[in-house]
Each structure stands twice: as C-alpha cells, then as structure tokens.
TrEMBL record:
InterPro entries on file: AMP-dep_synth/lig_dom (IPR000873), ANL_N_sf (IPR042099)
Protein name: AMP-dependent synthetase/ligase domain-containing protein
One MF annotation (Gene Ontology) recorded for this entry: medium-chain fatty acid-CoA ligase activity
Domain of life, source organism: Bacteria
Pfam families: AMP-binding (PF00501)
Region of interest: Disordered: 1-21, 276-306
Length: 452
C-alpha cells in the first residue's frame, strides 16, 4: 500500500482545532509530534490505576522520547532508559519505528491501551480519507471527544489530509457550532455519536444546513435515523463500524438518512477483510470487490447472524490490559480474529454485498442468578415504545455481588408518564425479574469520559 497522499500532507498547517481554548497547547504539541513522526500515547483525562506502568512500558518500547498527552492540559515528554523492572510490563525489544497508543473507552476504571506502529496510523488515515471523500465543499465539525478511538481517527485523517475540522463540546443546543455556521455558508458535515441525536434534533441548525452526518462509536437506531431524516431532509448519512484495536474503522455505509436501516454498516474500507464464523475459507477480498469475504448470502437473513471476524492492515501491534503486566501481540493484521460482534450479509443487488451488524455477542449480565441478554432487553423495549435511544447498563444492587439492570430511554417526543408498557413487555420475557429493572426516561443517556 502506498502512503504518498498521506505523507505529503505532513507539512500542512495544523487543520484541527477545538472551540475550547484550553486545549490549544496540548493539541498543537500533539499535531506537531504526529507530523514529525514521534512516539505518542494519548491518555484519558481521568487518571487510573496503572497509568504509570503503561507510561513506563511504552517509554521502554518506543525508539524515541514518548509524548504523553490527554489533548487538554497535559503534554509531557518521557525519555527513560532501562526502567525498573517493577514499573514496566514484560515487553519485546524496542520498536524500530515510532509507536502510537491510546486507551479504549472501557467500561471500568482500568481501560485497555492499544499500541500501533506509525505505518498503521498513516495507512488508516489514508483509507478513511479516501472512503469518506473528505472535501472542502463542507464546513467540518466534530462532537466526539478527541482522545478516544473515534475522535483520534477524525483528528489524524483531517490532519494528514490538510482539511480543517473543528471539535466542540456536545452541550445542549450545540452552541459551539453557531460561530462556524455564521462564518461559512457552506453546508455542515458533522461527526457525532449515536447519543448526540437528541442534541441535533433540538438544535437551532437550519434544516437545510446539515449536509452530512457521520456516525460511529455505537448503534444508531432506526427511530433516530427516521427522526434525523425528518428534521434534515437533505441529510446524507455515513454509518461507520469499527473497533479500537483495528484502526479503528472497519466498514462504512453511506446514503440518504431515510434509506438507513438499523445495523447497516455497508462495506469494508480498503485494507480490511470481514468474514463470518464457520464460513468457507474467505478469499482475500477488499472494499470495492464484488463480494465480501466468505460465501455470500442471497437474502437479508437476520436469523443467520454469526460472529464477525476481521483482518485489517491498519490494526494495532500490541495491547496492554489491566493490570498492565504484559504487552500482548495482536494477530489481527495478518489473521481473521473475532470482533466480539454478531452480523450477517445482505444481498443488495448484482455484485453488491452489504454487511449488517446485529450487536455484541457477549452482552449478558447475571441478574439474581439468571442470565439476561442486554441485546434482547433493548429489542423488547424498542418494540414496545420505539425510543430514539436505548441505553442498557447495570448498577450494583443492595446485596453484595448483585446487579440491577438499568434501562435509560430518550423518547421520540414528550416522555410518557409511565414505564408500565415497558415493564409489561419485559415481564412477558423475563417474568418476575422485570420488577428488578430500573427503567427511566431521560433527555440524554448517561455517558463516560469517552462520550459513550
């Protein structure tokens, strides 16, 4: 794969900014280091147990001084030779080229750290730029936090393409977008998470100004897509699927928002192969080929959803998992590996196969000794009340070891006064366990630092 188009953009004036001036120093330092090919680790703003060990490990792995930054207030260089054995994980010889690492959004206080080689960062930025057809006919803005997988892929692809993009906080009313729209009369192209849908629907953005909406980092509901198409009639939607370990982007779908169906992730990006578990051995197919890897299906058979496997030329080299005692090699650049997701193929016409994502394969929680599939909970709730967004999580119960399922719903319109229809629907599936569910309507889903 040639990287010339990406590398020629390294001398461009930094094209990425944030409306929060407090980020300017750290962001400028990051972009300079990125352009110069130096080693970088992007950390969460909130400290976590094990951060010092992660920093020591990556300092020892990198062939050059390591920039550690949260893209907000902290941007520190670390250069340590032969760190004490108890401060770093077991690791191979230092890498021959710069490393690039960041942390997953995680569900606990100890996130996983994914470690890339610079070559993969460049190739992924180029593939994303090509697939998204980044162009100057739009004014580009972004709502996801910069320091996690989705935000960093936006930062890197725009920086290497030399195309300006402005990040802003996802505050109610989206006030950070108002100056952009006032200063430039081009249509808006906006990167967002699925849970930003209520903000968009309630915003003052004129219906004809939002030309593109690029969604990743979660599952966009069919109800949300319909509401967005109604609010912004000219909207072109891009729905992206990926994983922090794999670039992160793996597949994209693009089209009118009104044509979107929930779970549709389209085709693999260049350099990526997708397959289903138990397929015949897949051909080495890539984006733009007649079919995706494996035997194509002749219908949209959602009952045939199976684990999705992926291989990506842009994948990470190592990962560090809590308690960060071993640097684990990752095979996903050369082998098909499980993604932890379920999916199936859709025959969309002659020589056109699209991919459908059916949810996580491991969304099971133990409630009072009974296994409850969070995907099934979400499906039942959606069928009962069709909200814009559904969040299914857990919180500790009153007894040690117990968990309580928490269902948060953002309604498509005024919030109903009662959750009784939802509880009745859950009772039909889970019996008396339905009484244990904490069900509530909210304006916005509860989100972590990653915005998810």
């Amino acid at each position: 794969m040639t990287l010339t188009p990406a590398t020629r953009a390294l001398d461009h004036t930094p094209a990425v900014r944030h409306t929060d001036p407090a980020t300017t120093g750290a962001l400028t330092t990051y972009l300079r280091a990125l352009g110069e090919g130096r080693s970088i680790v992007v950390r969460p703003r909130a400290a976590f147990e094990g951060l010092k060990r992660v920093t020591a490990t990556l300092t020892a792995l990198a062939p050059d001084p390591l920039l550690v930054t949260d893209l907000h207030e902290n941007a520190d260089l670390h250069s340590v030779t032969d760190p004490p054995s108890d401060s770093a994980a077991v690791l191979p010889d230092p890498e021959p080229e710069a490393v690039f690492a960041y942390h997953t959004s995680g569900s606990t206080g100890s996130p996983k750290c994914v470690v890339y080689r610079r070559e993969q960062v460049l190739s992924h930025a180029q593939a994303v730029s090509d697939v998204l057809e980044l162009g100057r006919e739009f004014v580009w803005a972004a709502l996801p936090p910069m320091r996690f997988a989705y935000g960093l892929s936006i930062v890197n692809s725009h920086h290497f393409a030399g195309l300006p993009v402005t990040f802003t906080d996802a505050d109610w009313g989206l006030p950070g977008l108002e100056p952009l729209l006032a200063d430039d009369d081009k249509p808006l192209a906006l990167y967002a998470l699925p849970q930003h849908t209520p903000l968009l629907l309630a915003s003052t953005i004129p219906g004809d100004r939002l030309g593109r909406l690029l969604i990743a980092g979660g599952r966009l509901s069919g109800t949300s897509a319909t509401a967005l198409a109604r609010r912004f009639p000219r909207l072109q939607l891009t729905n992206m699927y990926g994983q922090a370990e794999m670039g992160p982007r793996l597949a994209t779908w693009h089209g009118p928002a009104g044509d979107f169906t929930e779970g549709l992730i389209g085709r693999p990006i260049p350099g990526v192969t997708l397959a289903l578990a138990d397929d015949a051995p897949p051909a080495d197919t890539r984006a733009g080929d007649a079919n995706s890897a494996g035997e194509p299906t002749s219908r949209d058979d959602r009952s045939d959803s199976r684990p999705i496997l992926a291989r990506s030329e842009h994948a990470m080299t190592y990962c560090l998992r809590a308690p960060y005692e071993a640097l684990e090699p990752f095979a996903g650049r050369t082998e098909l590996v499980p993604t932890g997701d379920l999916g199936h193929r859709i025959d969309a016409g002659p020589h056109t196969t699209l991919w459908h994502h059916a949810g996580r394969a491991d969304n099971v929680v133990n409630v009072a000794g009974t296994k409850v599939d969070a995907r099934r909970v979400a499906a039942i709730v959606h069928e009962a009340v069709a909200p814009l967004l559904i969040g299914v999580s857990t919180r500790p119960g009153r007894l040690g070891g117990d968990v309580v399922p928490v269902v948060e719903l953002v309604p498509d319109g005024p919030a109903p006064r009662s959750t009784a229809p939802i509880r009745r629907a859950l009772h039909a599936e889970f019996g008396s366990l339905a009484a244990l569910f904490d069900i509530k309507y909210v304006d916005r889903l509860t989100a972590k630092e990653s915005g998810k």
